[in-house]
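Notebook entry, cofactor series.
This is the third protein in the set we're modelling with a bound small molecule. For this one the ligand is retinal. I'm keeping the input format identical across the series so the outputs can be compared line by line later. Sequence and SMILES below, as received.
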Amino acid sequence: MYTTLLEIVRIPVDDPVAFTFFTGYMAMFAASVFFFFEMGNVDAKWKTSLLVSGIITGIAAVHYYYMRDYYTVTGENPTALRYIDWTLTVPLMCVEFYLLSRPAGAKKSLMWKLIAAAVLMLVAGYYGEAFTDGSTSHSVTWGLISSLGYVYILYITWFGEVKQLADKSDNPTVKKGISTLSWFILVGWAIYPIGYMCMPGGWLNTGLGWESSNVDLFYNIADAVNKIGFGLVVYNIAISNRKVALA
Ligand SMILES: *C/C=C(C)/C=C/C=C(C)/C=C/C1=C(C)CCCC1(C)C
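Returned structure with ligand:
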């Protein structure tokens, strides 16, 4: 018989994955409050970006609330909840990227290309994780298909349309925003495939013996970096832009 809640849930302090679910939830929630309130302190043209940042962390907070409980009670990866979260938040990040490059002349078609590539990335990743038979071939096949979407997004930001817009722009704030964005996609987003490779049969699982619970450890760290970190960068750009305008 269980007598206390702590007997059935994993205690966050001795389980790093549970710990990041708890802190992740709180951080996403706090970040949303921050972004929503700070909307009043930035120029009108940045308000939508902050709004979208707050919605992204807000959607994540709700999913973390459920994922945290799912994980602490079952000890298993909350794969479905994770991908529902991403299906909503990653396209919103594409909207955010579009808003950031719009002052440099980005067209709506850019946003749709990013979203289409992100959907391919997520559908293949979900198939890889949710329908695994534990084999390396399954993990690698779907991981590679997913990576096609990721590489296409990298291409657009580092060499394609986004890069060309940044080169043409003579606005230093826009240039800085686009370059930060490109680095987030290259470094911050690359944490996710590392987590994926810890799944049963994944290269890090079979190669280095990294346990599959580490999938969520990497995903939680990556989400904090990308959802909160990127939002803060946008906020910083908006604020420094305002100082220039006041001077
Ligand atoms: C807020 C959530 C974000 C920014 C999620 C991003 C997710 C990815 C960049 C996932 C990428 C993956 C691969 C490139 C290959 C393996 C499967 C995925 C889906 C983990």
